[in-house]
Amino acid sequence: MALKVGDKAPEFKLFNTEKKEIALADFKGQTVVLHFFPAAFTGGCTAQMCSLRDDNSFYNSLNCVVLGCSCDSPFTLGKFKSEQNLAFDLLSDYNKETCKDYDVQYETWIAGMRGNARRAAFIINGDGIIVYAEALESAADQINFAAMKVVLETL
Question: Which residues contact 32 (CB under 8 A, 6 or more apart)?
């Protein structure tokens, strides 16, 4: 069932690019901007992550924690993070459990790949409640960053 505004955000524990376990519970009391993306080094995903990078000062000014999440390995995500100069954590959902919990999995994506993350964004308030939810069917589409910013500015 698709997550929606007002739902409790599912807990997760995933490894970042430094192989450190990161949990949603680590950010209790903080606003979390969680972005899922299908695959590192693809055009749309690079654009999505670089949009977050380019607006880093906006998110920092609101004291938000930005996290990116895909089913890529921590090693692939580490290379992607380095090459794109991303200043926020990328989390590896290699076992595809968090994508499933957030209901943002493709049943079948390109070239027969199964279970990759759909392009999606969630804003989770300090109490762990989803205050913004967007999950796209087409990987060619992009997140509505303007709508996200409006929600963030009202928190």
Answer: 9, 24, 64, 65, 67, 122, 123, 124
| pLDDT (0 to 100) of residue 111 | 59
Residues 6+ apart with CB under 8 A from 17: 74, 77, 78, 81, 89, 90, 92
Is the CB of residue 67 less than 8 Å from the CB of residue 80?
no
User: Does residue 95 belong to any structural domain of this protein?
Assistant: yes
Among candidate residues 45, 69, 71, 99, the one labeled active-site is 45
Q: Global pTM?
A: 0.94
Q: Is residue 17 part of a domain?
A: no
Report DSSP letters for 68-121, one per residue.
EEESS-HHHHHHHHHHHT--SEEEE-TT-HHHHHTT-B-SS-GGG--SPBPSEE
Number of domains in the chain: 1
Range of the domain at 139: 30-154
Looking at the domain assignment, is residue 75 inside a domain?
Answer: yes
Q: Can you list the residues of the chain whose pLDDT is less than 50?
A: none
> In the annotation, is 50 catalytic?
no
CATH code: domain of residue 47? 3.40.30.10
Tell whether 38 is covered by a domain: yes
